Amino acid sequence: MKIKEIKLLTNNIDAVRDFYNKILDLPIITGSNSFVTFQVGKSQLTFNKTETIIEPYYHFAFNITEYKVLEAINWINRKGIIINKVNNNDLVYSQTWNSDSIYFYDSVGNIVEFIARHNQKNQISNEFNYWDLINISEIGLPARDVNTLSNIIQEQYKEQVYLSSDSLFAPIGTRK
Fold this sequence. Notes:
Mean pLDDT: 91
Largest sheet: 6 strands, mixed
Distance between the termini: 5 Å
Helix content: 10-25%
Order of helices and strands: EHEEEEHEEEEEH
Structural class: alpha+beta
Number of strands: 10
Radius of gyration: 16 Å
Oligomer: single chain
Strand content: 25-35%
């Protein structure tokens, strides 16, 4: 899925601004003391400050250039970011999604995923950098009742479950 913009909450705008702008090099489109918006390829990532929700966190994914996944690992390591290993591996292959993923936390506890989808060929011929972040492609919505939330989203946005779903996980949208 190609997401144009997501708006998330945070208790610490300064930490978010520093991480995404100074560490990941994402350009700031606009911001103030109460919000900041970054350009992520063709998408926008906005964080709004909240005082009412304590330590909100999310999981979201950025599509990355497909053939540069190993360079992305090196880039993340050079930035001093600790990669969340899965089964002792930096890179997680999904046969179902035909993709490789890299997971790490940002400065406020969000789970960020760089995902290289092998069905989407991208040709950018430079060393890996923030330009290889193509767009936001996933946003996780935690729910007590996944099936009910899934049905609401499908009905309201005229989307379908992608591949399959169950009571714990329901991917909605397309791979495009």
